[in-house]
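User: For my dataset I need records formatted as: sequence, then structure tokens, nothing else. Please produce one.
Assistant:
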Amino acid sequence: MKLKGVLIIFVALLLVCSALPVFAIGIEAALGVWNQGPQGDMGYKGDSLSLKSDLKYSSTKTEMSGRAKIDMPLFLPNIYLMATPMKYTGNGVRSTAFRFGDRTYVANVPYSSELKLDHYDIGLYYGIPFLKTATLGKLNVDVGLNVRLMDMKGSVTQGAISESKSFLLPLPMLYAAGQLKVIGDLSVEAETRSIAYSSNHYIDIIGRLKYKVFGPAFVGAGYRYEKIKVDHSDLKVDIGIGGPFAEVGVKF
């Protein structure tokens, strides 16, 4: 886990939140761990490589993540910030030669690879007017727009042969979420971010149970799934990533 990097990002989120106390009417921040299970394929110009059978990525990997929500007054949109690291590495060998980028990798010789899909979200959203009031504070639904900045990299190395491709890809996404107070301090939440264009699509779904333990502190747990199909600058990624997560946070 890239603990240091995520902690830096989380502190940055808190600094952003603290910079808006005069305007904000509510702040929620959380730090968590997500047990990711990647499946699918990656390729760069050449052959499609299976994450499982060709690249030998672990079936699960735990990474940290951070998020912060800032409720704004009057007509100002609310703000949602989130950081999600994703990086997979492995060592494999194939019985047949393959191409990655402009390089040809020979058969029956071990190679190493890396796939990075770190992403950072900035969302602006509004709650549906009067719904929370009409349900006596039990139900709230949010809708808005989200920009996801993808820090992507794919690389394969075999001895002196090495090829890689990396870039930053901004993706505008639709955002929708709902929060339902079940009983007492227990609530159920769901979030979705999605985009589809050309033959590409990206959907991120989060389901969460959240419990207020004392004061502003809460704990949460749930399941997160991302389906990523992106072909950009000849780097093709078609994978699904899912797994449970847990988090701790505060809400003022």
